[in-house]
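Researcher: Here's the sequence for the chain we discussed earlier.
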Amino acid sequence: ELNTSADTPQEIDASTFQKDETANYIFHVPYNWKYSVEDAKFGQLDSYFIGDASYDGNILFAKLWSDTEKNKYDSLESATEEWVDGLYSNPDRVFNSEFPVEIEDFYSQNAKFVHSNFYRKQNDLNQSRYDLLVYDGKNNNFYSVTLSFQYYEPFDIAENYLELTEHSRMIFLTFRLNN
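Model: Thanks. This is the structure I predict for it:
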């Protein structure tokens, strides 16, 4: 079990969050985010949600996707290492040395919170990305939930003003394994 009651919000407000459940896990996403069957199928993902917003006249593109990888990793450490290598290997991403990839334990020995910032050349936007990485050693499954926010403003301004890290943590705290 990833979380304990002390780690999670006391209750999820059904008017602002919707439940997404797979065979292996459950989590909640903002109610106004739309599920995209096409994107989930195309990426062979468990789930794919899209949420667009504007603030102070600026546009924010938000995406959330989740995935299951079976029998690929033997530990959370090996999965996290390969995950971060994959972040850096995409040639469309330009990383800024002022904002290194951050990795921390996430309320469990079996979960990591990965935060990265980079510029996307393809769409000329800055991106804040948050990944919840969970390893289920009992079933040898690796689960990932990714939140991607794209915007035009500088990283620190958008992240602080919109509290993107806090919102990502709130969503990730709703994650539960179904086993």
